[in-house]
Specification:
CATH superfamily of the largest domain: Leucine-rich Repeat Variant
Radius of gyration: 17 Å
Helix content: 40-55%
Oligomer: single chain
CATH class of the largest domain: Mainly Alpha
Order of helices and strands: EEEEHHHHHHH
Structural class: alpha+beta
CATH architecture of the largest domain: Alpha Horseshoe
Length: 167
């Protein structure tokens, strides 16, 4: 695959470089300091071109399959590992609402450990779906941990700014 460098952006939490790989597809490389993850994605307006480009990328890189991402959440033995796996799962999830992935996000938002709840709130920012709003509102109003309440309020503000409507 031949690509032409398009641009890059950098701040204290995020680095992204983009390449044009065809008239209908752009390849993105991201270093996310907050999630402590690096990942790639392909975007574009023609789904068949994006999917084809993504298949080529997946042949050349060692990527986690959707099943491996789900298993990492389900098999995590400690709260921080579970929260980190949840963030990876959401980053690697489809751009449309997926009930299986959403179930893991809801489980994270309901986790007894406040660290997992906070990481699940953060994970919800990568795929900000209207379906998460009601649970985020509950956390913002009733969670026993002040930091979780604050994080949920901040995420709801992010949803408002991003135009994520009520479901």
């Amino acid at each position: 695959m031949r690509a032409t460098f398009l641009d890059e952006s950098l701040d204290d939490q995020w680095y992204e470089a983009r390449w044009i790989v065809s008239a209908a597809a752009t390849f993105h490389y991201v270093e996310d300091a907050v999630a402590s993850e690096c990942y790639v994605s392909v975007s574009g307006d023609v789904p068949t071109v994006v999917e084809g480009t993504l298949r080529m990328v997946m042949e050349d890189l060692d990527v986690w399959s959707p099943d491996e991402l789900v298993a990492a959440v389900d098999d995590a033995n400690d709260p921080v590992g579970r929260g980190s796996a949840l963030i990876r799962l959401v980053i690697g999830s489809p751009i449309h609402y997926d009930a299986e992935i959403a179930e893991r996000v809801y489980d994270g938002l309901d986790d007894p450990d406040h660290r997992v709840r906070e990481m699940a709130i953060w994970a919800s920012s990568y795929r900000a779906f209207p379906q998460y709003r009601s649970r985020l509102r509950e956390l913002a109003e009733r969670d026993p941990e002040g930091s979780v309440r604050d994080s949920a309020r901040e995420m709801l503000e992010f949803y408002d700014q991003a135009g994520v409507a009520e479901s």
